[in-house]
Each structure stands twice: as C-alpha cells, then as structure tokens.
Amino acid sequence: MRTHILLASFALFFLIACMGFPAFAEEGVTDTEIHIGQWGPQTGPAAAWGSVARGTGVLFEMINEKGGIHGRKIIYHTFNDAYNPAQTLAGVKQLQESVGIFAWVGGVGTAPGMAVKDYLMERKVPWISPASGSMHWIDPPQKYLFATYPLYKMEAKALCRYSVEILGKNRIAIAYQNDDYGANGLKGAKEELAKHGLTLVAQVPVDTGEGDLRPHAAKLKQSDADTVLLWVAPKHAIALLGAAKAMKYDPQWMSTSTCSDYPYLYDISKGLWEGVITTFFGDGPDSFGPLMREYKAAYDKFAAPGERWGTFFTAGFGFAEPLVEALHRCGRDLSRERLVEELEKLQYFRGVMGRISFAPFDPDDPMCRQGQTEVFIAKCVEDGDMVQLTDWLKID
Amino acid sequence: MDMERDHYEDVAFFTSRLGVFWFVILASGLLLFPFIASNYLKTYYIYVANCIAVNVIAAIGLNLLVGCTGQISLGHAGFFAAGAYATAALTGKLGAPFLPALLIAASLSALLGFLLGLPALRLEGPYLSIATLGFGLTITQIIGKIQYLGARQGLHAPDLVIGPFNLNSDAEKYYLFAAMAFAACLFARNLMKTRVGRAFIAIRDSDVAASTMGVNLMIYKTLAFAVSAFFAGLAGGLYAFVLGYIQPDTFNLLMSIMFLAMIVVGGLGSISGAVAGAVLLTWLDLTLRNVLDVPVLGDWLKSLSQSYFSITGVSNIQYIVFGSIMVLIMLFEPLGLHGIWLRTRQYWKARSDRGRRG
Amino acid sequence: MLNGVAAGSGYALMGIAMVIIYKTSEVVNFAQGEMALASVFFTYLILQNYGIPFVYAMPLAALFAVFVGCVLEFAVLRRARRQTTLGMIIVTIGLEMILMGLVSWKFGADHKVMPFPITEFDSIWLGGFYVTTLEAVTFSVVWAVMLGLFVFYRYTRLGLIMKATQQNRSAAKLMGVRTNRVLMFTWGLSSLVGCIAGLLLAPRSMEPFMMWDPMLKGFAGAVVGGMTSIPGAVFGAYFIGVVENLFGRYASMEFKSAVAFALIVIVLCVKPSGIFSRHYVKKV
C-alpha cells in the first residue's frame, strides 16, 4: 500500500513539473554567440568526407578571429555520425535540444540528411547547403532548406554535352555507384544523350563496398566506349582506372566534382589520373583567387596537423559561405525568419563556389531552393595540376 | 527447485509479491519516462529509447534463433529491411492502416525466414553464417533494384497513424514502441515455455538427440527462423518510422553483426539478457560520439592524439571503446550481462542467507 | 576467367589465414582482415617515416605480423577460452573494431600510396587476357604459401605437433605438447599469411577499409572449401572470384556477389561441410 502512495505522489509530482515551460526569444542566438551545427562521417567507410565538417570549422575560426559577425562569435558544434542515419538523428536532436542550434550547415550524405530533414523542417530550423547533390532537398522545396550543391544530374549533363559537342565523342559509357549519387548521374547522362540522339553504350553499377573492379573494367572495355563517366567514389575511380590500364584500355575518363581533388588522386593513382576530365562546382584549392588565398592562410593557422588541403576541405568553406553572407546581411537583428529572407535575396553571390541565387519560397518551384546551377569543366594534367577547359556552364 | 504442479504456474506472470512490486516500479518508470525526459532531460532521450525499443524487439527475435535454437544468422538486417520496406510501402504507397501493415510486413519477413530456414536444415556454424550473410546481402540488392520501393534513392515513411491517433512526436511513438517491445518480451518468454520452446532448446542442445526424441527438425528449425524473422520484420517496420526515411545501404552487414553482438553481450538464451544487450549496445552506439567531451578523459585522449596519433582520426576512439567493451564483457563474463546479473543476485542471496544464520 | 582467378588469389590468402586458425581452435576469426591491415600500415610506417629499404621492411613486417597474432592470442583469446563458439566470434569482432579504430586513428581516412616494387599497371598478354605483374606474383605466392604450409605440416616437428593439437587437444597435452604455445604460434602463422595477402592488395588501394571485402570473400571461399582444408580454401576463393567475374561480365553486375553467395548456399546444401572436408556424422 505504501508503495502505491509513493508512486501516486511521484506521478503527481511529474505532472506538476510538466506544466510551465519557458518560451525564449530565438534559439541559438545570444548577444555574443551564434550556434551553428554540422554532422559528418569521421569514422567508417565514408570517413574521407569528414574533412568537409572540419573545413567549415576553420572558416568559422577565421571569422571569429576577425571579431565574428556583428559582434557575435560563431560557436560551432560538429559531431561524427559515421554515415549512419540513426546516429545523425540522435546527434542532431541532442544538440538541437540541449544547446539550441540556430542553423545547420553542410552535412555529408543523402541518407543521413534525409533522416533529419523532417525534424529540422518541423522545427523551422534553417539548414544551408546539404553536402550532396540530391533531388530530395529541393523536391518538394522546403522553406528552411537551402541547397547549393549542384545536382549530380547537372554535372552529368554538362560532361555529356561537352564530350559530344566539343570532343565529338559518341560512344559514351558510365560506371555509377549503386546509390542516390550514381542513380542521379545515370539519369542525367541518359537525358542529355537522348537529346543528341545517342544512348549509353554501357551502364556498369558499382557497389559501395566493392573491392574488385576488374569485372567492371572488363565490361567497359567490352562495350568499346570512347568516353567513360565515373559516377563513383574516388577509391573506385582509381581502381577502375588501374584495372583498365592493365587491360590496355584507355578511353577518355570523365568524373564528377566528388573526384576533383587532382593532387590527391594523381598521387594515389600514381599518375594515372592525368588526362581525366571532371566537373568542378567551386574554385580548386590551388587556384589563386584572393578569397582562396585567405582561406589557405586560415588553414595554415587553424587546421589540425595532418589535415590535407584538398577539395573536400575547401568545400567545407564553400558550403558555409552563403550562410555567413546572409548572417552578415542580417545585421544585429538576427532571427531565423530574417535569415531566410536574406538568403532568399541572394543573387549571383560568388564565394569560392559557383554563383549562388535563391528566390522567394514557392512550393511549386523546386529551383527556388537550388542555389547553384553552374559548374565548370577542367582537366587534370601533370603533377595533379588543373587546366580549366570551359567557363562556368549553366545547366538547367 | 520447487515442484511445479501445473503448467499455468510455469507461465504465470508473477511468481512472488516481490515480483509484483518490481514490475510495478519498472512499468511506471517506463510509463513516466517521456514526462521525465521531456521536462528534465530532452526528447532526444526519448528518441534514443525508441531506437532501443526497436533493437530490443530485433534482439529478442534473434535470441530465439541463436540463443534458444542454436542456429546462427548474419543476415538479420535483411529481415529487418524487408519489414521496414514492406511497412513503409504498405502504409505510404497503398494507404493501408499502420497495424495491419506492420503485421503483414512482419509475416512477409517470416515467410522469408522460413525460406532461409530450408537450407539451414543442412547447415550449421560457419557454413550457416555464410549462407545467411549472403541472404542479407541479396535482399538489399533486390530492394535497390525495385523502382517502386524507391530503389537506391530511398523511401519515405508516412506519418504514423493508428485509428484516430496521429503519433507524431517521439513521446507518442514511445508508448507504441515500448508496448510492442514489452509484448515481444512476453511473447518470447511464454513461447519458450511451450512445446515449441522446449523443442527449440532440445535442438540447440543436440539436434540428433532431439530428432530421436521425436522433435521434427524440419518443422522446428524453419519455425525458429520464421519466428525470429517475424520479430526482425516487426522491428524493421517500427524502425522505418523512427527515421522516416529508409535506404538499402542502411541495412548492411554491420547491422546484422550489431544484432548478434547485442544478444551475445547480453547473454545467449536469456530474454532479459537480450534486452540488456540491446539497451547497452544501442545506447553506446548512439552516444559514444560524445566520448571526447567527457571531462578529464576527453582532454587526455585529445592530447594523446596530438602527440602519437592524428587529430583528424580522433573520432575512431569510439570504435576502440566499443570494441573494448565487447571484448572485456566476453572475457570476464562468458554469460554476458545476464551472467553478471545472475552472479550479483547469487552474491546478495548468499549474503542475506549468512545474515539470517548468523 | 583469368580475371576471376586473379581476384581469387587475394581472397585465397585470406581464406588460408582463416582456415589455419579455425582448424586448430574452431574460432572464426573476424579480426583476420584487420590484423593484416595493422601489418600493412606498419610496413607503410617504416617505409615512409623511417626510410627503411624495402628489402628490410618485408622481414620486419613479417615479424610484426607474427607478433600481432601471438599477442592477440596470448592477451585475449587465451583468456576467453571458456566462451562458446559464438562468444568467440563476438570477441574477434570486438578485436576487429579495436584494430580498425587504432589504424584509422593513427593514419586517418585518406588513401595512402604504398611504395611497392611491383606495379599493378604492367601486364602480360596471356591467352587472350591481360594479367598484371602483380596478379601473376600474387598467384604464384598463393601456390608457394600452399606448398610451404603443406611441407610445414607434413615434415616439420612443429607442424606435426600442430596437427596433433588439432586432432585431439587433451591427448596432445597428455603427450607433453604445450598446446597453449601451439595455439599462440597458430595465430602468429595465420597473421603472417594475412599480412602477405594485405601487402599484395595494398598497391591497389590502401585505406582502413581495404581488407573488409577480401576477408569476407576469403571467409566465404574457405567455407565452400570446408573451413578445415587449405587447398579447399584456395579452391573456394577461386570459385568465388571466377563466378563473380563471369557473372558480372556476361549477366548482371549488380547481382554478382549475391549470385556467388547463392551458389555457395547451393553447394553447401549438397555438401554441408564444404567440398574438401569429410562429412563427420555427429555423435550424440
């Protein structure tokens, strides 16, 4: 009997405690701080992409050193989700509810991002630049979700157009990763080739965990393609090139911005990467724009020892640029609604990525939330140097 | 041991008044958890609890197969995926109500389990593990090919609606999931006390002996697979609604290995062990990323990485801690968490007995 | 076909390594791949950071591999002997996570380039197919290892002792064999074979996850071959390599691994203990 009374009183106590919960002004912003969050895989098979989140961190340190944004320092919260959606959602919820994040930036991967999308959108938390080029972000468009990463489809279209119109190739094949990334590339290539009255001469799927690329290379060789699009992860791209080389098969290789880290790929492929054509969605790490040089200085100063100055790392800077720009434009009076307004007003904003423009929210127009629609094409030459082949191309 | 006079005594829910007391405490704790969590902690903890509930169901199911029947499966992520996809597709694409959809999905999963159980009739040990591993691999490949299920682009789960209730928040889902997990425990517990359960155990201990005693191996081995797959399918169906979005790659070999680790770390063959293992490993999996924020240890680990390892790879400490916990538990307590519990109970009993005598 | 044999060679070495351990102690060693990984990265470290010439680095790597195997057996597996078979699997999975964590903690996730004297890009034209030098070397290494192990088990005293321990541990113990030491040595030996496999795979791609796929395929191959027979493991590995390559080339690339596994299941249904092992009828 006594336990019953005890329990009943416990229950009553909690019920009382449930009531009265304070409401606050704007989550994640104080007079001196703005809390920004990002997730990224630091362990597991996708860990190479972890440098995106670390790059963003260096950008924020650079901004804070200069005094922050309108007197507020950026407090950056990042965590490792190991590319596991369940862990992404766990980490996002924890940070959102314990620290209170003002806005999220970047975030590698389609599956992890999709796990948290609904949660963030329900709470009206802005999320800028998911770090993957998926249609899921903009279709249907969300008021608080701003995508900048050019769609994988666009990159495929750009490459196909270039190879057919400029290089005069007509036997085009694709090796694509068996996921959202690869599927979008495949779709884009098919659509663009159909416009030229061509079809893919071979479509070779590559599993994410694949270790042996010889059959894939053999299949590509069999198709006798003169151009091969590599819609795969860097390690698979290299393995395919190696296997094809051993089979004395040497088509024009083309790949995506995911494989545009020339010095690195040149190095780990022992020079095979020379001659490969890829798209770029931002300036290369070793380009000599003033902004990129500033970032390089920040890298020298803040980056952890052993950090590599590569494309993923600088992409981490690039993804955060629209957010930083909009925060600057908001001024002292910062709220999420203001941030969204300012982001919508961005027109041809140019940082180290291509030009970024958003439009006021329109539920019927996905492109109002797709910031960047242009890429350029470049070629890897000796020592992993880059030669730009085209200007920025706008692809619809 | 007391003599039992009646089967009902065996399956009776409570064996003593102390049991009633603890059950009430536990149940009210579980019931009140969302209130406590959302006010004093965060709804984040409710989410973690939901993940735990899902894994508890899957672990209990796997335990019926591995712990009780002595078969091994490295392909449970496959059943999990089948359940998740079937539930999401039935509710989202065909507009079926949630509970029937979940049951159909779990039954479908059970059917797959039955089919996989057929080759398992002739296999055991590493041979069976490779066969089941191949199954897990194939299922995700097949799903990845089906455009209707979103192929590689993944599939959305709709809102969770049961009758008039729309379970949107984690707390609302929590009640459903916790009830399901509880029902799963109860079902497994009672199943083990029926003819079927005894047949399972006989097969585990020696299948040749069991068959000479009149246990039909073909029926019971495939049944074990089917029941276990049913649980996994059920868990998968719930998982789709925890995340709201599923993709074939999520259901990989690592997931199967995690399920297996849960029941072994918890203690093979015991339901409370499976629950404990699922709770511990899920919790570790979801919270170990914070290991670097632990006050003293975190700083020490950081400085260690600075001087001997690399800062960029510092998160890998998670793996090391996770692996170490698994190895240590297995080294010091072969029966896993369940063994630790048995030993503690024994210790206190012995103490109180001594006290009474002295 | 030849491509399949080439791919199979890598798996074969991993399969042999797993068989060596399973034969003696009935432990399915999931840490096999990561043990090899540790040795490979150790080799990389001494080559890259300490500038030791390749000729000296190889014996050092071999020593290190044996050391890793022995230490793991001594420090962990020996303590866990009360465990069930499944418990042992979980222990090795735990070890796998620890080793993988240590390697990626030290070296990060980026790919590395192993300075290796044999290039994987040069190839020889062989009856309608190209075979790279590396593949040819790997292929001959597999046969050399197989032959070496055969001679070792057949003609050396230690080999005989190991065989005796496999057949009946308590009897061997009664005959004065120090079975603990034999087990430790078994792990060392298996780690060494794994290390060779790792070194031959490293020029292709070197990152913390490089051994996962070869290990699983090697394990599958070993299972087809019967898990206790070394030639069986080699045969099984070639079987997988060939099936994957042929099916991938002429039918569907996506389902090549799935089909390989399905074939394994069919083979196992016909011969439940694999092709190369005698089927024991269990005693009740």
From TrEMBL, chain A:
Keyword Signal part of the UniProt annotation: yes
InterPro entries cross-referenced by the UniProt entry: Leu-bd, Peripla_BP_I
Signal sequence coordinates: 1-25
Keywords of the record: Signal
Keyword Protease annotated: no
Record-linked Pfam families: Peripla_BP_6
CDD domains: PBP1_ABC_ligand_binding-like
Superkingdom of the organism of origin: Bacteria
Coiled-coil residue spans: none
Protein name (Swiss-Prot/TrEMBL): Amino acid/amide ABC transporter substrate-binding protein, HAAT family
TrEMBL record, chain B:
Keywords associated with the record: Cell membrane, Membrane, Transmembrane, Transmembrane helix
Topological category with respect to the lipid bilayer: Multi-pass membrane protein
Protein name: Amino acid/amide ABC transporter membrane protein 2, HAAT family
Superkingdom per UniProt: Bacteria
Entry's transmembrane regions: 20-37, 44-66, 72-91, 98-121, 127-144, 174-192, 223-246, 258-284, 317-342
Any one GO MF annotation of this record: branched-chain amino acid transmembrane transporter activity
Locations listed in the record: Cell membrane
UniProt entry tagged with the keyword Ribonucleoprotein: no
InterPro entries registered for this protein in UniProt: ABC_transp_permease (IPR001851), LivM-like (IPR043428)
GO cellular component: plasma membrane
Keyword Mitochondrion found: no
TrEMBL record, chain C:
Top-rank lineage group of the source organism: Bacteria
Pfam families with a match to the protein in the record: BPD_transp_2 (PF02653)
Membrane-traversing stretches: 6-22, 53-74, 86-107, 127-153, 182-202, 222-247, 259-281
GO biological-process terms attached to the record: amino acid transport
Keywords for this protein: Amino-acid transport, Cell membrane, Membrane, Transmembrane, Transmembrane helix, Transport
Recorded GO MF terms: transmembrane transporter activity
Protein's cellular compartments: Cell membrane
Its membrane topology: Multi-pass membrane protein
GO cellular component: plasma membrane
UniProt record similarity statement: Belongs to the binding-protein-dependent transport system permease family. LivHM subfamily.
PANTHER family on file: ABC TRANSPORTER PERMEASE PROTEIN (PTHR11795:SF451), BRANCHED-CHAIN AMINO ACID TRANSPORT SYSTEM PERMEASE PROTEIN LIVH (PTHR11795)
Protein name (record): Amino acid/amide ABC transporter membrane protein 1, HAAT family
Protein source organism: Desulfatibacillum alkenivorans DSM 16219
